[in-house]
Design goal:
The structure holds two protein chains of two kinds. Chain A is of the alpha/beta class. In chain A, about 25% of the residues lie in helices and about 30% in strands. By secondary structure, chain B is α/β, with parallel strands linked by helices. Chain B is built from ten helices and ten strands. In chain B, the strands form three sheets. A six-stranded mixed beta sheet of chain B has the order 5-4-3-6-7-10, with helices on both faces. A two-stranded antiparallel sheet of chain B has the order 1-2. The chains are: A alpha/beta, B alpha/beta. Chains A and B meet through strand 2 and helix 2 of A and strand 8, strand 9 and helix 9 of B. Strand 2 (about 40-45) of chain A pairs parallel with strand 8 (about 230-235) of chain B, so a sheet runs across the interface.
Chain lengths: ~725, ~300
């Protein structure tokens, strides 16, 4: 079987018949044998015979060999015809008289959107697939798998109607995901096995995989050991069920410039406050590239910067922008102009608020040192425009007001020295976290650690598991300094290199020791000098909980009096509310959604997709909270969710591609044969684009090779008769 | 066909034993087919009258007798002749060849022709002699017109056995020296010899003013080469063996053979030698006709 990049291939249905090729030696053997068995005869006119032998010896020998060759070819042709050969013209092997199930697997990853010429790789793949179908015989069946992430069977049961199948094929859209090769292999194996079981009339099966052979998808180094082994097993099984043909649509010299990341530096945006937008670009080419990077705010160009990238290089750009109107906004970083358009854009969905509203729940309204939230409220919203706390509104309520307050109006809730929580308070907090709220606990002398653990730490039956750490029963009264843990956590990363901010000079006089459960998602933000965690955080539901083991006022620590206090509080707030922003910015394939805290009744959310479709997401109500979830976030772009009852302004979501797929480096045939498909027999058509561009050659129909062989045989027989007559090997 | 004419067919004659019988049957068969008897010449001396039969030459009608009797009589003359005919029979080994389609070997055929000619010549009151040869002269009967000469000729012919190879050139030279009286020399041979040497020998006869008739006796197989199967041909006359696929070689052989025949005929024409090709499956009358034509020519000279 031909494994080269040839466009034409050849195979046999009954290769065992080739054993009869040995019979082709018969003319030679008969010739030799006849020379051993001869008659003897006296001859008078010997001198003329000898003269004839002398003059005709060379010519006679040549004629004899030529005749032998023709006679051998006659037998070989008959044997070859018996082996039922068929020719692969371009893409389709023509097997006469056998109904075939052709499974087409098309790479749907967004690197297939690359346009080497007029058409993209994906369009070329679709054209090729359509031609495979058109050139197949009547009665053949077709299935289709789109190798996106996840891979899915577009046509599951073999379709016997080529027109229907081609219509399905034409409607296929390029996914903006990577390719799930393992999933596609599993899908293909399942379809082949199912067809073999349920459709025995489709006696033969063939698999065509049309891909750009990108390293990201096909290189075992990218896939990891486990996935590689899994894929290899699947392909080995596929090859047992059907011959595998790979059609390579990739180009060795394909280059690409991609916007690999775009994010707002601040975790929240408020009206009138400048935000910093950071983006990164990467050049996946072997030659330098330059581009004009644009920042578009709500579709209008806001800034532009020219960049130049070295081969394989990366460059970061930063823009500043200020939104004057509150509401949902979209920022876009665009660097258009190369042959793969999909990853030239990244979007950021941003909710710009009139202000960030923080609710401070005060568990100690009046103590000897004043209210526990006094310092906190001041640190959250320091006066003056341009300060870090600009646009933050802190509201202090008493402990008892927690259940009654509509937390949905607030971005973050600080719970300060609250003695204990009832179950209904726990439910309020739990629901708040489900709607991506941020919750920060400060402790103090009123706190009942055991009760915290029971109600919010998940220890009691049916209790809520919200706390990132367990509280030890007894507060410790001992002066301790802080251990910043190498400033690893984003909350205190701002103190790196800022010794004058006084973080390390801050003493903790009293604290509740925190214990982080093993294998939890909690992260220690800041510890004491003996290693005891002081600040621990954990994402809970769609929100985030931060637990501070000391007080927010000066009862247990002098920190509120020190310069480090305001930055710490600001960072705690930023981190706690960051989750809200992140939920608006996801990768293709991840779901978007929201919890509607004020929603009453049933209904559905209307979603406008970037490609102009209008979809609906059903509202679900669970534990008293209504919410919606939309998982079909493909393609990339801005998704807009409308719900009349919720608000006048629609919610926006930014869905971006995974930049990994932007690396267009492809695997060579050798690497493929030595790597992922080492033990799998397959045929590779090296130039899928050329194949797709061929006008009519592929469409030339053939009923197998029986007829051509018959003509050949006839020709050889006529030639033999003519030669035998011409050379005198016939009856006079 | 008259019953006697069937004896002109070699395959019929081959079934009969004895040269005397064969010779007589050939000649009688031949005579029955021609209108004018070959046994009567037209010399000056009157012999007798014979009743006219249709086909007779009216120049010889005796008009005086017609005037007297109202009947047509032909004048017949006693021929006075001094014609000498020498028969040279090749008895080399190659003459023994008898192909698959031939009723008799070339030698047998040649003997029949020689015997018939002897019979005819003697009945025409001419002299006939015989020499058999291969690489040398094996037997020789001097020409005579004595009726007993026929018996001697037939005896010699029956005795003649094939041996050795042909060497015609020197033999013809030697015989030309011996045949002093001018006459007709008839060569019966397959002539498988060097053409130039052969022609030189024959030229010697012509030099001595003999009329030479060459009866080239060939087997049909030698002319057609009809073999199909791979064959080991064993050369007669000390030539080597050769293994041949006949169909493959037929064309080349025929080309060589016809080349040889062309040279031979050309040489004969050049030296005014009558060349008569004879196949051993051919009737014998060709030989007798050729002889008689040559004889008439000789008598006119």
């Amino acid at each position: 079987m031909n494994h080269g990049p040839a466009l034409f291939g050849f195979d046999l249905l009954s290769p065992s018949m080739l054993g009869w090729l040995a019979a082709a030696a018969a003319p030679l053997l008969i010739h030799l044998w006849s020379r051993r068995r001869y008659e003897e005869m006296p001859w008078a006119a010997m001198r003329y015979l000898l003269a004839a032998v002398k003059t005709a010896r060379r010519r006679t020998r040549l004629e004899q060999w030529l005749l032998l060759l023709v006679r051998t070819a006659i037998i070989a042709t008959v044997v070859l015809a018996a082996a039922e050969p068929y020719l692969e013209l371009g893409t389709v092997p023509f097997v006469p008289g056998v109904r075939t199930h052709r499974l087409l697997v098309i790479d749907g990853s967004y690197s297939m959107g690359y346009r080497p010429g007029e058409t993209s790789r994906f369009e070329a793949a679709k054209q090729l697939a359509a031609r495979i179908v058109e050139e197949s015989d009547q009665g053949d069946g077709f299935s289709l798998v789109l190798m996106a992430d996840p891979a899915r069977a577009v046509v599951d049961e073999p379709s016997l109607d080529p027109a229907d199948f081609i219509a399905e094929l034409q409607a296929l859209r390029l996914s903006h995901t990577a390719a799930d090769l393992a999933g596609a292999a599993a899908c293909a194996e399942r379809l082949l096995a199912g067809t073999a079981r349920r459709n025995p009339k489709l006696a033969r099966q063939e698999v065509y995989l049309l891909s750009d052979l990108g390293r990201v998808t096909w290189d075992p180094q990218h896939l990891g050991q486990k996935t590689t082994a899994q894929i290899q097993r699947r392909f080995a099984k596929i090859a047992q069920l059907a011959p595998l043909t790979l059609i390579d649509l990739g180009q060795d010299d394909a280059g690409n410039l991609a916007v690999t990341s775009a994010a707002v530096a601040e975790t929240f945006a408020v009206r009138g406050r400048a935000i910093e937008i950071r983006a990164e670009l990467r050049n996946f080419s072997r030659s330098p590239a330059s581009a004009r990077v644009q920042l578009l705010a709500d579709g209008h160009r806001a800034a532009e910067e020219a960049v130049r990238l070295e081969p394989g290089g990366q460059v970061a750009v930063a823009f500043s922008h200020r939104f004057e109107a509150p509401g949902n906004h979209v920022l876009e970083i665009a660097a258009p102009g190369d042959r793969l358009e999909i990853d030239n854009h990244r979007w950021i969905a941003l909710a710009v608020r009139p202000a960030i509203r923080v609710l401070c729940v005060n568990g100690q309204p009046a103590g000897p040192k004043g209210s526990a939230t006094d310092y906190l409220a001041a640190a959250l919203a320091p006066a003056g425009e341009g300060t870090r706390g600009f646009g933050i509104q802190a509201e202090v309520v008493a402990e008892s007001a927690l259940v009654e307050t509509d937390l949905g109006r607030y971005d973050c809730v600080f719970l300060v020295n609250v003695a204990q929580f009832t179950r209904s308070e726990g439910l309020v907090l739990d629901n708040y976290l489900k709607s991506a709220g941020g919750v920060v606990f400060f402790l103090g002398d009123r706190v009942l650690p055991e009760q915290y653990n029971q109600t919010l730490g998940g220890l009691a039956p049916g209790a809520f598991d919200l706390l990132p750490a367990r509280l030890q029963a007894v507060p410790v009264e001992q002066r301790r300094m802080l251990n910043p843990l190498e400033y690893r956590h984003p909350i205190i990363e701002v103190f790196r290199g800022q010794e004058r901010a006084g973080l390390l000079a801050t003493a903790i006089e009293q604290y509740v020791p925190l214990e982080v459960p093993a294998e939890s998602a909690s992260q220690v933000v800041l510890a004491l000098d003996d290693g005891t965690p002081l600040i621990v955080e954990r994402p809970v539901h769609r929100g985030r909980v931060i637990l501070v083991g000391t007080s927010a006022d000066t009862a247990w620590t002098p920190m509120p009096l020190l310069p480090s206090y305001v930055p710490i509080i600001q960072e705690l707030l930023a981190h706690a509310v960051a989750q809200r922003q992140q939920r608006r910015n996801v990768l293709v394939g991840e779901s978007i959604g929201a919890v509607l805290t004020r929603f009453q009744g049933n209904g559905a959310i209307s979603i406008q997709t970037p490609d102009g479709r209008s979809e609906t997401a059903p509202l679900t109500v669970a534990a008293g909270l209504a919410g919606w979830n939309f998982a079909s976030t493909d393609p990339s772009g801005v998704y807009t969710a409308f719900h009349g009852e919720q608000s006048e302004t629609p919610e926006v979501f930014a869905v971006n591609v995974d930049p990994k797929e932007g690396d267009l480096a492809k695997l060579s045939e050798t690497e493929l044969r030595r790597g992922l498909l080492a033990d799998v027999p397959f045929q590779l058509h090296g130039d899928g684009h050329r194949l797709a561009a061929q006008p009519e050659s592929v469409a030339k129909r053939s009923g197998g090779l029986a007829k051509p062989l018959l003509y050949l045989l006839l020709g050889l027989l006529l030639l033999e008769t003519y030669l035998a007559r011409r050379f005198g090997h016939h009856a006079p | 066909m008259e019953p006697s004419r069937k004896y002109l067919q070699p395959e019929v004659l081959a079934r009969l034993e004895g040269l005397p019988l064969r010779a007589r049957l050939i000649v009688e068969g031949y005579v029955s087919g021609v209108h004018r008897s070959p046994f009567h010449g037209f010399s000056i001396e009157f012999a007798e009258h014979r009743e006219y039969a249709p086909g007779d030459d009216i120049r010889y009608v005796d008009w005086k007798v017609f005037g007297r009797t109202d009947k047509f009589y032909l004048k017949q003359f006693e021929e006075e002749t001094n014609l000498v005919c020498n028969l040279l029979l090749d008895t080399s080994q190659s003459m023994l060849y008898q192909g698959p389609g031939a009723p008799m070997s070339k030698l047998e055929y040649a003997k029949c022709v020689a015997a018939a000619l002897g019979y005819l010549v003697l009945h025409q009151q001419d002299s006939v002699g015989l020499a058999t040869f291969d690489s040398e002269v094996r037997a020789l009967a001097r020409p005579s017109s004595n009726p007993s000469q026929l018996n001697q000729l037939l005896h010699l012919l029956e005795e003649a056995a094939a041996a050795e190879k042909t060497d015609t050139g020197p033999i013809f030279h030697a015989l030309a020296e011996r045949f002093r009286k001018r006459g007709i020399v008839i060569v019966l041979s397959d002539l498988f010899d060097d053409v130039s040497s052969l022609l030189t020998g024959l030229k010697h006869f012509r030099h001595r003013r003999h009329e030479v008739v060459l009866f080239h006796i060939l087997d049909p197989a030698e002319l057609d080469f009809p073999f199909r199967r791979v064959t080991m041909f064993q050369g007669l006359e000390q030539l080597p063996r050769v293994l041949v696929d006949p169909p493959a070689l037929r064309k080349a052989y025929l080309r060589e053979f016809h080349d040889y025949l062309r040279q031979l005929k050309q040489g004969c024409r050049m030296h005014h030698i009558d060349y008569v090709a004879m196949r051993t499956d051919q009737t014998f009358d060709v030989a007798l006709s050729s002889y008689l034509a040559t004889r008439r020519g000789w008598l006119r000279t």
